[in-house]
């Protein structure tokens, strides 16, 4: 059984209020996301600075280490200490990270909001990832379950609704939401969910990942590393993201909102229940 690392529970305000002037010449008070830097140190060695909302910084750091392939087991991490007074996160490992210099020598600046960074070869682990088969009922999604999932996200209370300018990500088992995270960058949000899954021993083979952000190669790879076979996005997809998903046998949905969506690939994982079109080409009564 894995030893669970010791984690602080550092709190930070998610929003900042200020007075603004609108198009009517009126002053009013609004909230904006409280973006802040968090510099990550591993065994006293500075690794990277993440720009984050700070909702769950310890889980963000844990998921970041996992998704960057810097640690392979919870046993390797003794503690994660976040201190907002110095904007730092100190990771203490039990025995150090083997070849840390080599693993972090190559940096790829990603398209992630907040300018994400991926260490090493993005494609290095692709062929070693094995997802649940499409024949497995738990690794499939019906159209009606997709609609219910989207409705859960529609009514979810969020920083985005009150302040805007953040991405939201969630982990589902069919239409049941298990974890919801917001951050200034979608890559931070997915890393935080990865950290939550790892800490609580939650597997991804029967899960669905939802994001408000676009499906880039980075998002597809991280979802695959979490063994999640289905991704739903409110936004669109890039060509490389699509090619990787096809290679891995993943099912990707984009432009998903209310009762509208596009399934880009992985049709064998999707239980289609087609909407009826009206003569005008829009959805019929049961799909409106």
Describe the structure.
By secondary structure, this protein is an alpha/beta fold. Helices cover 23% and strands 31% of the residues. The chain has helices spanning 57-67, 100-103, 143-155, 159-163, 186-200, 217-225, 239-248; strands spanning 6-7, 15-21, 27-33, 36-42, 45-52, 77-83, 88-93, 107-109, 117-119, 141-142, 167-173, 176-183, 208-211, 230-233, 251-257, 260-265, 270-271. The strands form five sheets. The protein has a six-stranded mixed sheet, with helices on both faces. It has a five-stranded mixed sheet with strand order 1-6-7-4-5, covered by helices on one side. The N and C termini lie far apart (50 Å).
Gist?
With 288 residues, this protein is an alpha/beta fold.
- Note the gap between the termini: 50 Å
Question: In terms of per-residue confidence, which ranges show pLDDT below 50 for 5 or more consecutive residues?
Answer: none
Question: Mean pLDDT score, rounded?
Answer: 87
| Order of helical and strand elements | EEEEEHEEHEEEHHEEHEHEHEEE
Percent strand? 25-35%
What topology, given as strand order, has the largest sheet?
Answer: 12-11-13-14-15-16
Count of DSSP helices? 7
Quaternary state reads single chain
Helices and strands in order:
Blueprint: E1 6-7, E2 15-21, E3 27-33, E4 36-42, E5 45-52, H1 57-67, E6 77-83, E7 88-93, H2 100-103, E8 107-109, E9 117-119, E10 141-142, H3 143-155, H4 159-163, E11 167-173, E12 176-183, H5 186-200, E13 208-211, H6 217-225, E14 230-233, H7 239-248, E15 251-257, E16 260-265, E17 270-271
Parallel strand pairs: 1-6, 4-7, 10-17, 13-14, 14-15
Antiparallel strand pairs: 2-3, 4-5, 6-7, 8-9, 11-12, 11-13, 15-16
